[in-house]
# Entry
Amino acid sequence: MRRILPAALVALLLALTSCATPGPDGAPNSSPAGLSTASRQDPVQAERTMASLRRVDDLPLYEMTYVGSYDATVGTDATPSSPFGCSLFVAAGDPGRTVFARNFDWEANPALVLRTDPPDGHASISLVDISYLGVGADPTGDRRLLDAPLLPFDGMNERGLAVGLAADDAATVRPDPGRPTVGSVRILRLVLDRAATVDEAVAVFTRYNLNMDGGPALHYLLADATGASAVIEFVDGELRVERGTGGWQALTNVPVVGVPEQRRRADRRYGLIATALTDSGGVLDAAAAHRVLAGVRQGHTRWSVTYGLRTGEVRLVTASGGERRYQLPMS
# Structure
């Protein structure tokens, strides 16, 4: 049954959403009140999205389900000013239960578990550091949350494709004038919405220039439900891809493309992950993957998460000690 809103509430929502004026591409620009620039929701969908927000953890961690559509190519983007930490790996020794795992090591900001199901893309679940939306520790009623789909720091979609990022100080990007430019965090949303496999995700990356101005340079780990994985880095201005072999692949904050494994393992966190995955033959369940993540936690680890690329299971542990589980229906 469709929910009917009181006429006064609909009128108020229409007034709020009309505060944005169209930009040159027809997309609304942010108003002084910080209203969404990417939302393509009608007022009822926006109200349902905001009404779904709830606090579930003292990180603080929130959950929200985005209702309706958005334009993933416009609006807010993250410009972090100091390096990310982060440790990521994919355990694919048993392709029937591939696990993607990551620690997000960063500042003490509030986070959001976001569900999206765009009409023209794949449903996904992702984690967002909402401070990059300008949102504080209590985001209740803050309509800037309607831009939350634009800033996934890691996530998985219904096809079993997962992606995460980490700082890579060695990365350099040389723009191609024939390609559109998107932010270095925004690209994760485009991948989650449009790609079902690692090959398709790599193709999404190759269609865009990445803007890394104003923040740390990044590299990325991708994995899919077949057990395929890849690292994407930018070496001497060029996008480079290294495919996973041997049942696992890992990423911290040191370059891996073209770098001998022995040199990679000189990084403490990479070395600990690599040893654990080598010893296990790349076969880990979610609980074992979380034990590996715990072994490389840092003082500023904000969340540890595993994504079951076949099962759709998401297990999340936050810095506050809270644990949450989610189930993404897989297609």
